[in-house]
Amino acid sequence: MNAVRIASTLAILTIMTGMARAQTPGDISDLVGARAAGAETAIQSRGYVFVKTQTGDDRKYSVWWNPRSRQCVTVATMDGRYASITSSPAPDCNQTTARDRDTWRNDDRSDGGYRPPVPPREAPSYAGGRGPLTVGGYQVDLGLVCFGDGQRPGVATTYGWSWNSRRNRYDYGNRTEMTSQQFDASVMIQLWDGGGRISLPKKLIPPINTRGQDGWWDLYDVDMGPDVIRAKYRLNGLNKPAIVINRRSGQITIRGTDPYQFRGSCDLIDGEDHRRF
Asked: Phi-psi region for residue 182, left (φ > 0), alpha (ψ -120 to 50) or beta?
């Protein structure tokens, strides 16, 4: 009898999991399971606008609206990660449905009643309605936003007992040690023929650095291959991190002087289909 119950429970869970995946819009399905800090940057880069949030017993629910695709979604965040993303009705995002708009258009009222406004079409985020983007006289060929996990050198103070050879005894005190710090972060990259630049969050900028311009560092040794993009940037005389981007999977790795590194996933700033590059 117990075996039958267990089998029934597993079957129900499988069906529910399949339904949840089917309800997740394809353009953001890869964000399920991602850390909330980086995923929030990613969902915004794909055209979604935050609407509201609600707090449950063990998770938070945030509602997002995409004015271009007129898609409303609800994101459940649990333990700092996106646990699920499901499609929601337009009214959940304070928007009207197509039927509602048609009703208002066909309703010949003479009393001047209120009619819900229809959001205007937005220009692609990358082009901005002004043609190709140029930086310092260079036309940007590829713009990326990459989110993920980073690591950098840090300093930690610990307390405990240590041997004092001069006094021939154990003394209680503190000592400072070098450590590696983990964090969530996102970077932005712009590439053009023979060069480019990268925008770094404060967590990826060491105290001693070459002082990038407005948070951007120039890229050199740029190689835009058909499958892999490689480049470097100079933080200081000793730390010259190397960037490797897989153009098929969208994965990025940045490695500098140990333990400086960053791993994540990149989105193309195209403003339309939000495809991998």
From this structure: beta
